[in-house]
Write a structure and sequence with these properties.
FAD/NAD(P)-binding domain, 6-stranded mixed sheet, binds arabino-flavin-adenine dinucleotide, binds P-hydroxybenzoic acid
């Protein structure tokens, strides 16, 4: 087999890259490890930055998002059981957020691929990049019991944190930065109405978050110890703990119901540099992970893909490798901005093991300051809304 760009991974990064490359007349083949159903069923991100919404609309992928998604001017933060303020990104920056689930984005991306009879091979085994720094990169894989070789000009590693692509960059050339957090997020999905605003909670008992997927599908999270498992948390126990962390008048608004999905995700900050080695480019979780406190994960995957498709389009159109050579540094500037914002919000909103009442009061004082200062709120809004894409 031969193509221009071999894409390893059919998550949001891989499928979106294939779509954007196609619109630039560039051929690709996507090699995905799991089945389409498995990829779509994963419950993950739910909040899209303005830049992500703009990229999806420009790629002709915005119709269902605009019909089913929910637009928000910002997010609400509550603490100490009483206070609250709204990070109004629209007031400060003219930007809005879209609440639209990653599962729905995956469905839209697969549908777009089907419409153009794209080469998206699912249930591929033993996918392995080769000669990424040589003159003839290629990818080997097994599909339906047969071994294949895919020759290509470039390889895009869009295979997530546990994929193979990052390892294709020699350890001697790779630098990894990591911060593991001593807690996880227990998340549930329930067919109940969400709160009006996406709401983050700082509480001495721990962090909580109320979000949404549709007017009758809400997404809730609470901070839990890393040792906890889903079996430790019945629905009743979850709803009682969630209500205990929200201010009482908000807790009264929470409509409880059966969980239709329940999972615990550990929190981690991680960045691998560089994001390019020879003909190999890393996009999305293959290169970086953020704690979901800043709702940045999928949005960073989209910004990497936006920069990479722009660089590859310039190369094929004019032979210039300037944007390709700048890809890693350009993508990493936005990655580190989101890493820092996500780390800051995680420190501000969670109760860390070993924190004292002094630490709790200091967090509440910082939240009081954010509430009282329009300058501080504008700064947080600017970081939260996501940095604009850099011009070519
Ligand atoms: P993905 O991991 O989504 O996709 C990688 C794809 O590559 C997968 O389909 C995988 O099957 C495939 N793959 C892996 N190894 C392969 C191989 N060897 N060969 C071929 N294919 C291979 N982000 C938020 O913004 N908000 C959230 O609330 C949020 N919650 C999350 C909850 C969980 C449990 C997890 C794990 C992540 C969450 N994220 C969240 C982050 C998430 O949305 C990612 O940022 C997003 O999926 C990144 O997309 P990709 O880079 O495409 O990686
Ligand atoms: C979600 O809707 O799943 C969500 C919202 C905000 C976050 C993380 C997750 O910070």
């Amino acid at each position: 087999m031969k193509t221009q760009v071999a894409i390893i991974g059919g998550g949001p990064a891989g499928l979106l890259l294939a779509e954007l490359l196609h619109r630039q007349g560039i051929d690709s083949v996507v090699l995905e490890k799991h089945s389409r159903e498995h990829v779509i069923a994963r419950i993950r991100a739910g909040v899209l930055e303005q830049t992500t919404v703009d990229v999806l609309r420009a790629a002709g992928l915005g119709a269902r998002m605009d019909a089913l998604g929910h637009v928000h001017d910002g997010m609400r933060i509550v603490w100490a059981g009483r206070d609250s303020f709204y990070i109004d990104c629209h007031k400060h920056l003219g930007k809005r957020f879209m609440a639209y689930g990653q599962s729905q984005i995956q469905e839209d991306l697969f549908a777009a691929a089907d419409r153009r009879s794209a080469q998206v091979l699912t249930e591929c085994d033993a996918v392995q990049p080769h000669d990424v720094a040589g003159e003839q990169p290629w990818v080997s894989f097994r599909h339906r019991g047969e071994d294949f070789r895919l020759d290509c000009d470039f390889i895009a590693g869009c295979d997530g944190f546990h994929g193979v692509s990052r390892q294709a960059i020699p350890a001697t050339l790779r630098r990894e930065f990591e911060k593991a957090y001593p807690f996880g997020w227990l998340g549930i999905l329930s067919r109940t109405p969400p709160l009006p605003d996406i709401t983050y909670v700082n509480h001495p008992r721990g962090f909580a978050l109320g979000s949404q997927r549709s007017p009758m599908l809400s997404r809730w999270y609470i901070q839990v110890p890393l040792a906890d498992t889903v079996d430790d948390w019945s629905d009743d126990r979850f709803w009682a703990e969630l209500a205990a962390r929200f201010p009482s008048e908000m807790a009264r608004q929470i409509v409880t119901g059966a969980s239709i999905e329940k999972s615990i995700a550990p929190l981690r900050s991680f960045v691998a540099e560089p994001m390019r080695h020879g003909h190999l480019f890393l996009c999305g979780d293959a290169a970086h992970i953020v704690p979901p406190t800043g709702a940045k994960g999928i949005n960073l995957a989209v910004s990497d893909v936006f920069y990479l498709q722009r660089a590859l389009a310039a190369f094929y159109a004019s032979g210039s490798s300037a944007l390709i050579d700048a890809y890693s540094a350009t993508a990493l500037r936005r990655v580190w901005s989101s890493e820092r914002t996500s780390w800051y919000l995680t420190k501000l909103l969670h109760r860390f093991p070993g924190d004292s009442d002094f630490d709790q009061r200091a967090q509440e004082s910082e939240l009081d300051y954010l509430k009282s200062s329009p300058h501080a709120q504008a700064s947080l809004a600017e970081q939260y809304a996501g940095m604009p894409f850099e011009p070519a």
